[in-house]
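Run glutathione transferase through structure prediction, thanks.
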Amino acid sequence: LLGFFQSSKMETTHYTPFGVLPVIQDGDYTLYESRAIIRYYAEKYKSQGTELLGRTMEERGLVEQWLEVEAHNFQPPLYDLVIHVLFDGKRGVTPDQKRIKEDEEKLARVLDVYEQRLSTSKYLAGDSFSLADLSHLPFGQFLMRGLGKEYMIRERKHVSGWWDDISNRPSWQKVLQLYPPAV
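Sure, done. The structure for glutathione transferase is below.
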């Protein structure tokens, strides 16, 4: 993934309708929204390195399924936890403990589903690392560092092994070296 970003310019001032980042400029092509960007690069560079979208239509379907699970089930409660645990106090807002507890419960249910899935396959979409796994790294990093909630991963044997596998990939370690987490 790092090689993909080195070959294109990450643009931080380019106009987007919603004022969102990240934005990439690849020649005359501009694209925003992180999941759209990773899909674009995975497709564009599929002949180089790891096949991140799956080798068959069925594998692609599973990758897309787990990307949707990440986007709609994993990331939302984790995003809320980041906001309420890490940033509310810094903004002078009292963290909403009821909301934090609800988000932890939602995330625990998602991780329980992951534990079941990962008991039968090495990665979420099968036996090969894919975008489905990669997409968990940015916000998963907050869970493991900063929130003090790494136990949510560690108390699940298969999720813990999966996290160690994906988060120790040389490409992710390089990303962390180039862009150290703010927390």
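The chain is about 60% helix and 5% strand.
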